């Protein structure tokens, strides 16, 4: 089977982000970026299927400016066969991303579109669901286990009430959760080899896609700081403080 | 212009969930007529419960065997058809896993953008929402010429009071429902403890607890003070507790009056889940642990000595 897997470039999850003093957003210049951690899990899953013979071709796709090529190289170093870079210098919101991904899915006809469940920058958690809706494909979000058989996927989903299992016909969009797998560390020879693999560049109009009416950002600010806390030395002191506040 | 808001009810096992009432509170901040839509198999009791939520005008109940399980691909076309026929300006759902799965599908079927995690309302189309694991708050303005689909950050809103008596009306929707998605089963972690997302007190354990067996003392102490039990990702990944107990950016976002955590260092992703707690108490043996920067009360020490002492002190 053929798999498309989407990749987003985001500020690295270990970075303590800084809000720009003028309220225009968060400081991105000179800040370490990497592949969104959920996307790494999606890529890892696709490559495991390639290694065990389940998948015949894995194609990494991304939308964004020139810098995104770095994350597509990473995806290829994982073992993706090729990559498609849909180029734009504008901010891409989930509805627009879904329109692009729908066009790519129609062009590539994969059996599955794997995505991260959310990007850790906008925390929107929308793109997979929106892409599935646009394609009228099934969706299985927050996957922690995926089993494939007979043109169907049985997906275990992490939901508030426990673990739900859905059976979906393929092709489907599946978004992955943290516990699906542990992504591998990349080896240097693979990173070197990845530089030779093709990355196809496409523009929105080549896919016949237009950006959706965006949600505008008015301002971005730091969250309110909590009042300074205190340290206590003993359990008795702690209990006294909690009783003072009628919490126990 | 007056708004007409549709709130999608989140329910499970024949019970209306508290999250629905929280979404209604957010809807009241937006202002306008508020209706609740219950999509269920046999949902009369759920609809009756929803009708008690203060501030709502009507409850619409769509009973359909296809709605027995909350499958987004089946619910979304019904919601879009109902909302468009009813001329709703806003469609809101809670940011539970139900709402997170469903609402973007609703938005995309209607071909409109969506706002995730409304935490404050500035106007009918202007909201605050958290980004970067809550390390920044952004004010966004959604297009006002189209239906707005959004999810409500439950931790930012209390549940609407149950003093209302709205009318419940059976509704039908004309929508083609897909057959490509089937519910297979649900493995539920059984617990008699209060619900983690709505409990006024939460006790959490992290990697420092050390093992599944050791979590027993966390549970025992939680039971003693009537608290729900949560955990960090490290504790879930280590297999000490099931994943539905995870608190943080990718787990549950909670706002209890008291949050006490044992053996949790305080990674950015965990802090994202507890920033709205009333009082945060941290117990950790590492005085440099980042959790102490956020905690209202910190105590440096070994949790295996402190929990029994706490236990004794509150007895």
TrEMBL record, chain A:
The Electron transfer flavoprotein alpha/beta-subunit N-terminal domain, residue ranges: 23-211
One of the GO biological process terms: carboxylic acid catabolic process
Pfam families: ETF
Record key words, sorted: Electron transport, Transport
GO molecular function: electron transfer activity
InterPro entries recorded: ETF_a/b_N (IPR014730), ETF_b (IPR012255), ETF_beta_N (IPR033948), Rossmann-like_a/b/a_fold (IPR014729)
Cofactor(s) annotated in UniProt: AMP
Electron transport recorded as keyword: yes
Domain of life (superkingdom): Bacteria
Quaternary structure (record): Heterodimer of an alpha and a beta subunit.
Family assignment from sequence similarity: Belongs to the ETF beta-subunit/FixA family.
Reported function: The electron transfer flavoprotein serves as a specific electron acceptor for other dehydrogenases. It transfers the electrons to the main respiratory chain via ETF-ubiquinone oxidoreductase (ETF dehydrogenase).
PANTHER family registered for this protein in UniProt: ELECTRON TRANSFER FLAVOPROTEIN BETA-SUBUNIT, ELECTRON TRANSFER FLAVOPROTEIN SUBUNIT BETA
Name of this protein: Electron transfer flavoprotein subunit beta
Lineage: Bacteria, Pseudomonadati, Pseudomonadota, Gammaproteobacteria, Salinisphaerales
TrEMBL record, chain B:
UniProt record, GO biological process: fatty acid beta-oxidation using acyl-CoA dehydrogenase
Cofactor binding note from Swiss-Prot or TrEMBL: Binds 1 FAD per dimer.
Domain of life, per lineage: Bacteria
SUPFAM superfamilies xref list: Adenine nucleotide alpha hydrolases-like (SSF52402), DHS-like NAD/FAD-binding domain (SSF52467)
Binding site for FAD: 207, 232-233, 246-250, 263-270, 284
Gene3D superfamilies: HUPs (3.40.50.620), TPP-binding domain (3.40.50.1220)
Keyword Flavoprotein: yes
Function text: The electron transfer flavoprotein serves as a specific electron acceptor for other dehydrogenases. It transfers the electrons to the main respiratory chain via ETF-ubiquinone oxidoreductase (ETF dehydrogenase).
One of the Pfam families matching this protein, by short name: ETF_alpha
Protein species of origin: Salinisphaera japonica YTM-1
A single GO molecular function term of this UniProt record: electron transfer activity
Protein name: Electron transfer flavoprotein subunit alpha
Domain Electron transfer flavoprotein alpha/beta-subunit N-terminal: residue ranges: 5-187
